Structure prediction request, 130 residues.
Amino acid sequence: MPPAPAPILAQVEITSFGYLHGTPPTAHITVDLRHHYRDPHVRPELRHLTAHDQTVRDTVLGTAGIPALLDSLTATIAAYAAGPRTGPITIAVGCAGGRHRAATVAAELAHRIPGATLIHRDLHQSVVER
Prediction:
């Protein structure tokens, strides 16, 4: 098992967003969850819920690969923070609508990084009917 990452002593801003609601925000790291992780939107009982709902969070965090992705992102942010440059580190996490996968992953990532700022750009948007 790899060693735990060093504490992150940098300003970190994490933004969740939906690609269907506009251009991704500018970021040092952009994570696109659309093609590799199943969309809770396809389940009618989850479609109109958001990452504020425990069922959505449980579904996303229980998706194969998501826990490893979160561990990897946490370590990547720590590596950026350990670099010689100072200044904020920006992370953008996107999915189709920004209400399920991106918002859940961004919130969990922010939870893992003390002092991180979390912005949900599109969580309040209406469900995109596809």
Residues 12-120 form one domain. The chain has a mean pLDDT of 92. The chain has one domain: 12-120. The chain is about 30% helix and 15% strand.
